[in-house]
TrEMBL record, chain A:
The keyword RNA-binding does not apply. Coiled coil: none annotated. PANTHER family: ABC TRANSPORTER PERMEASE PROTEIN, BRANCHED-CHAIN AMINO ACID TRANSPORT SYSTEM PERMEASE PROTEIN LIVH. Its main location: membrane. This is Branched-chain amino acid ABC transporter permease. Keywords: Amino-acid transport, Cell membrane, Membrane, Transmembrane, Transmembrane helix, Transport.
UniProtKB/TrEMBL annotation, chain B:
Pfam families: Peripla_BP_6 (PF13458). Keywords: Signal. The keyword Nuclease does not apply. PROSITE patterns: PROKAR_LIPOPROTEIN (PS51257). Residues 1-25 form the signal peptide. The lineage of its organism: Bacteria, Bacillati, Actinomycetota, Actinomycetes, Micrococcales. InterPro entries: Leu-bd, Peripla_BP_I. The keyword Signal applies. Belongs to the leucine-binding protein family. Residues 33-350 form the Leucine-binding protein domain. This is ABC transporter substrate-binding protein.
Length: 290, 393
């Protein structure tokens, strides 16, 4: 039985790494530009679909199409960021986050119109097995995803603590008005954050899409487990976002092996969110909490 | 002012009455059009646009050739967006206000189950191009031209155990709505026929899941030789890819007709020991005269070559044949009667003859044509030289 659980956990690592990377980008966005970006995965999806189109219809070599896809992801995200920075700079986090539902729906519809509603023929950027443990093959895609999540989280933590740009970004996120008054260029900086997270999402989706369900809706809806993972770190802590992503993937994998708890499988991210919210509110007194 | 408003309202009412009076004529005049409708899922979570496009192409051709006994066909399709409320409204619009004589050639994710009582109440018959939900297969008023996912499940298992000689088949079910008992009945029917049982049935595989690795690992570790799954196209691709990542080279995939498409073949280079599907209609991925007329008409009208367009085409062709055999006024009553008393129609594109009441009562012998997608081929090919039939019990 324990063998089956270990297998489940390892099998779940594939999606866990993916959730972790997306959770890290969500956390970054929330910390630095005060937004929960619901279009995060959709931006990556659209960039990846564009890359496939460039390779299959225009005949670009795969590496060039991939680079173009990353650029498209960054630009798309920057445009959404520009809208947020131009018209919603003084708005609440809630309003800015709600705004991102519009690009989420728009990108899904647009990809239906441009690329059709069928899964895309992705050519894999990474393939093959990295190693086998307990009878489960752990693929290179999984390994790269887990490493990417850790590296991005660590690099961002270093950037924020050790560099001038990091200091400015922190100033901007904590005291936006004061930061602007002392001459920090708020708009370009925040659009830059959008662009970087857009590029990371594009890379992530392009790496994982060839090895799983890859129609527009399933890719865009990765935002739900990713948000659940980011919630573990309260959308503030990068390390906990990584842990949350990996844990969520592994729990999903383990539950899939247990026939007795089959009925909860489809609701795991939801249960994860509810439990975390209850835990984080545990010391609040009714009435004072709002 | 008030008087004037009342006047306008009265005029509008009279106008509306006059208009609806005209519309209500439904085939009364010598050259009045024959109104036909269909409810389709064209936008939303799962989309099936080709069935009604194919039916439209058939009706356009009939109209261009002078119509049915001098009557032109007016075909109206409504998108239900996969949404129950819209599907309900769509049926009322077609049956209630447009007064269609029948519903033909549609394909909807949910429509049958939601509207079957209304169709029974209005005594209107429906001949979907592709029946999807359980409700298409359990009412005397609906008889799709396809055999349905539940018969398909029995067929795909038969194909695996009898044609391919597989012993240890595991069944993974993705359940949407209330379809589980119907799929289970399909599996039990296979057990009744062959005396074999699946190694296990897992009915909790998520619909539209992003990563299927845990389910594949479980199946591989349990020692399954083949997995039979009722997955839609994107999910099936995800499952094959998860098996590829696990290096499960000797697994056979037994899927349903829903994955039988050119797009699916292009998306997968690796398919283990092969993806096997019992195609519900004569396989279209190879040229054959059974499909010639359909292929020509679809290509002319720029409609995708899929099982869905085969279904829509067949429904429209069958319906036109019934209409052409009718004497006297073409009204809802006379069409309903003609469909209920029709002679069976044979077509080389289908394994079994179409007779409305027999199909609606599920009293027919379903069959499909086995096709396979082998690793590295990126193209479907026939894996048998005749229909695979479910033996009548």
């Amino acid at each position: 039985m324990n063998g089956a659980l270990l297998q489940g956990a390892l099998a779940g690592l594939a999606s866990g790494g993916l959730y972790a990377v997306l959770a890290v980008t969500l956390t970054l966005m929330s910390r630095l530009v005060r937004v929960v970006n619901f279009a995060q995965a959709a931006t990556g999806m659209f960039a990846a679909f564009s890359a496939v189109w460039l390779a299959s219809s225009l005949g670009l070599p795969v590496w060039l199409a991939t680079v173009a896809g990353v650029v498209i992801g960054a630009l798309l995200s920057a445009v959404i960021g520009w809208i947020a920075a131009t018209w919603l700079s003084e708005s609440s986090v809630t309003l800015r986050s709600a705004m991102t539902v519009a690009p989420l729906l728009m990108l899904i519809s647009l990809s239906f119109i441009l690329f059709g509603n069928k899964p895309q023929p992705f050519s894999p950027l990474l393939s093959g097995a990295a190693f086998t443990a307990a009878g489960v093959v752990v693929s290179w895609v999984t390994v790269v995803m887990v490493i990417l999540a850790i590296v991005v989280a660590a690099a961002c933590a270093l950037l924020l603590q050790r560099t001038t740009i990091g200091t400015r970004l922190r100033a901007l996120s904590e005291r936006p008005t004061t930061a602007e008054l002392i001459g920090i260029a708020a708009k370009p900086l925040s659009i830059g954050v959008w662009a970087v997270t857009g590029a990371i999402s594009a890379i992530t989706i392009m790496v994982i899409a060839p090895s799983q369900s890859n129609d527009a809706v399933s890719l865009s809806m990765l935002i739900i487990p990713a948000s659940a993972a980011a919630l573990l770190g309260g959308f503030r802590r990068l390390d906990l976002a990584v842990v949350g992503g990996l844990a969520l993937g592994m729990i999903t994998g383990i539950v899939a092996q247990l026939p007795s708890v089959q009925f909860v499988r489809n609701f795991i991210p939801f249960l994860f969110i509810v439990l975390l919210l209850l835990w984080s509110q545990r010391k609040e007194v009714w009435g004072e909490a709002r | 002012m008030k008087k004037r408003l009342t006047g306008i309202a009265a005029l509008t009412a009279i106008g509306a009455l006059a208009l609806s009076g005209c519309a209500g004529g439904g085939g009364g005049g010598d050259d009045a059009p024959i109104k036909i409708g269909s409810v389709n899922s064209i936008s939303g979570a799962a989309t099936f646009p080709e069935a009604s496009e194919a039916a439209q192409a058939v009706f356009d051709r009939v109209n261009a050739e002078g119509g049915v006994n001098g009557h032109q066909i007016e075909y109206k399709t409504i998108d239900d967006k996969g949404d129950p409320a819209t599907a309900t409204a769509a049926a009322r619009e077609l049956v209630g206000s447009d007064e269609v004589v029948a519903l033909v050639g549609g394909a909807s994710l949910i429509e049958c189950e939601i509207n079957q009582d209304y169709y029974a109440q209005e005594n209107v018959l429906s001949m979907p191009g592709i029946g999807v939900d359980t409700g298409c297969f359990n009412t005397p008023n609906i008889a799709p031209v396809n055999l349905g996912p539940f018969n398909d499940m029995t067929l795909t298992l038969l194909n695996g155990s009898e044609n391919l000689g597989l012993e240890d088949i595991c069944v993974l079910l993705e359940i949407a709505g209330s379809t589980e008992p119907a799929y289970r009945a399909g599996i039990e029917r296979w057990t009744e026929i062959t005396g074999k049982e699946p190694m296990y049935v897992d009915a909790s595989v998520p619909y539209g899941g992003s990563d299927y690795t845990p389910y594949i690992v479980k199946a591989k570790q349990s020692g399954c030789e083949a997995i039979a799954v009722n997955a839609v196209e994107p999910d099936a691709i995800g499952q094959v890819k998860a098996a590829q990542a696990q290096g499960w080279d000797d697994v056979t995939f037994l899927f349903l007709t829903s994955v039988y498409s050119e797009n699916f073949a292009e998306a997968l280079d690796w398919t283990g020991a092969g993806v096997h599907v019992p195609a519900e209609f004569y396989p279209f991925t190879e040229e054959n005269e059974a499909n010639d007329d359909w292929r020509e008409l679809m290509t002319e009208n720029d409609i995708a070559l899929t099982s869905f367009s085969q279904g829509g085409y067949l429904a429209a062709m069958n319906f036109v044949e019934v209409l052409e055999g009718m004497d006297g006024d073409i009204t809802r009553e006379s069409v309903t009667e003609a469909l209920q008393n029709m002679e069976p129609i044979e077509n080389p594109m289908v394994a079994f003859p179409y007779q409305f009441t027999d199909i609606a009562a599920q009293e027919f012998q379903p069959g499909g044509w086995p096709v396979v997608l082998e690793s590295g081929s990126n193209a479907w090919k026939q894996s048998a030289d005749d229909w695979l039939m479910i033996p009548s019990s």
